[in-house]
Specification:
With 374 residues, the protein is an alpha/beta fold. Helix content is 41%, strand content 15%. The chain has 15 helices and 13 strands. It has a seven-stranded parallel β-sheet, with helices on both faces. α12 crosses α14. The chain is globular and about 65 Å long. It starts with a strand and ends with a helix. The mean pLDDT is 92.
Length: 374
């Protein structure tokens, strides 16, 4: 098939949850033998040749910043961009598309461009975004009003546009249940978050540190870090253990939540092009999440690299597997870190669960079945 793949995010470099998901979908479509025209953003100005996939041709989307009016009103949840419409319509006229694959966030308003030409549409979600917006803790009347404004706009975007797609992909059974309240169940397919196993080779020696990887600009990760700093980590732990924070915004988030405390062995290093070495070398990955939806790619990355996982229940919500070290109270989490002992059998169980459920090869079969239904 000739497939148009459209997302407003930048999939490259492949160093964050949303990017890993979009890259995985592109690689699956490539390996299934389809010809893919991928319309993507390129915020990091990468050379697409460095991320070449068989049968995939990239078109860079020139995303202009939202205007002040758009940021205040949030009308981009519903209205189309002339620039994006021009690109999509031009490509539609140039190629004989058999399918349009729209991936991530609030781009449902572009479904109609393809439906009116009889082109079926698959819409990919990464989370229930409206639910995430509602969970964000904020203080003050104005911030709460803004939160509920964006929640309602996101919710009505999902409720109005998502049913127009021929198939909706979600990442967990909980998300599927949410969408099934207003979308026919035969339209909904659960394709869990997954990883290209060829990118995750445990070739590094373990070192004496724990790691937390995340986009720390996302509130749920920042709140998890705040919990670690305020409730879990103490002077005694700081003298005996090292925690490295890897990912976008980690330095700023750590400064924000640190307050008047001083820790010499919590070390934020910021964004990196590749998180694999940091996870593979760590004794264990910490996932101290208290909010969120869907499933956690940071968890899957640790499983793929045979690295132990110390997590809250929320951190492994929706993830099938054995071997997680689950601790929900500050004292339990502190004890899990302080008493941690490497266990190769536990890490092997995590890896086997990854291959069976969250590898690209496994989910290629799921996506193949979805496309065959269309």
């Amino acid at each position: 098939m000739n497939i148009l793949f459209f997302t407003r995010i930048s999939p490259f470099p492949i160093n964050g949850g949303e990017r890993i998901r979009s890259y995985g979908l592109l690689k699956v479509l490539s390996e299934l033998g389809h010809n893919v025209i991928a319309v993507v953003s390129n915020r990091d100005k990468v050379d697409f040749e460095d991320y070449k996939l068989k049968n995939v041709k990239y078109f860079e989307l020139n995303n202009r910043p939202f205007t002040l009016l758009e940021r205040i009103t949030g009308n981009y949840y519903y209205y189309t961009s002339n620039n994006i419409c021009e690109v999509l319509i031009k490509l539609k006229e140039q190629y004989n598309f058999h399918l349009a694959f729209l991936d991530y966030a609030f781009i449902g308003q572009y479904v109609g461009i393809f439906k009116k030409s009889g082109i079926p549409v698959v819409y990919g979600t990464h989370n229930v975004e409206s639910s995430l917006l509602l969970q964000e803790p904020v203080r003050g009347i104005f911030k709460n009003l803004r939160k509920y404004q964006f929640y309602l706009q996101a919710y009505w975007h999902e409720k109005f546009f998502f049913p127009k797609a021929d198939k909706l992909i979600c990442v967990s059974e909980d998300d599927s249940l949410f969408y099934s309240s207003y979308i026919m169940k035969d339209k909904i397919h659960v394709i869990p978050n997954f990883l290209d196993e060829t990118r995750y080779i445990a070739k590094y020696k373990k070192e004496d540190y724990f790691v937390m990887t995340a986009n720390f600009n996302a509130y749920m990760n920042k709140m998890g870090l705040k919990w670690i700093v305020e409730e879990v980590w103490d002077k005694s732990m700081d003298g005996n253990h090292k925690l490295i924070l890897v990912g976008k915004g980690s330095k700023e988030a750590f400064e924000e939540v640190l307050g008047d405390k001083t820790f010499k062995n919590i070390i934020p290093i910021g964004a990196v092009d590749d998180m694999v070495p940091y996870i593979a070398k760590a004794k264990a990955v910490l996932i101290p999440l208290l909010q969120g939806s869907g499933s956690r790619l940071k968890c899957l990355e640790a499983m793929a690299l045979k690295t132990s996982i110390i997590t809250t229940s929320k951190g492994v919500e929706g993830t099938v597997g054995q071997g997680f070290i689950v601790a929900d109270s500050p004292s339990q989490f502190r004890e899990a870190i302080s008493n941690f002992i490497t266990d190769k059998e536990r890490d092997r169980l995590l890896y086997e669960s990854f291959l069976a459920n969250y590898s690209l090869s496994r989910n290629k079969l799921r996506i193949k079945g979805l496309l065959e239904e269309l």
